Amino acid sequence: MPFPIISDRNGQISRKYGMIASDISNTETVRNVFIIDDKGRIRTILVYPMNVGRWIPEILRIVKALQTADYNHSATPANWLPCNPVIVPIPETFKGLMKRNKEIETNNNGISWYLSFKKSENCDN
After folding, report:
1. What torsion do the CA atoms of 17, 21, 25, 27 make, to the nearest 10 degrees?
2. What's CA 24's distance to the chain center, in Å?
């Protein structure tokens, strides 16, 4: 894996992040996934019941979506997959809004000034 996976043999991390489901067990964690960026910020928390396994392709998709959104200064829409278009931030000025409307009309890449798309840069699957 090109990113760290942390072992928690003594349960210290599990307790710190509230991963122990005390109504189920005092020692067993629910299935948690924390995606923490290089600045130490928690970007995603996934919590699965103990009887449901995690889906690694979804975790990897989330990591790629976070990286893509950060790199492109954009957002990823629902059901986004790597290399799909990303959502362009809304314009901050009326002039920007008018420019966006013209781009949408020319490129057919959006619904309106508040929802338009662009090809994601730095796409390597």
Report:
1. -10
2. 29
> Strand, coil or helix: what is 20?
strand
Distance (Å, whole) CA 30 – CA 104: 45
Q: Which CATH class is domain 57-118?
A: alpha beta
For residue 104, the 8-state DSSP code is H
- CA geometry: angle 117, 122, 89, nearest 5 deg: 30
pTM metric for this prediction: 0.76
At residue 16, the pLDDT reads 80
| Model confidence pLDDT, tens digit, residues 33-85 | 889 888 989 999 998 877 888 889 999 999 999 999 999 999 999 999 999 99
**What is the number of other CB atoms lying within 10 angstroms of the CB of residue 107?**
11
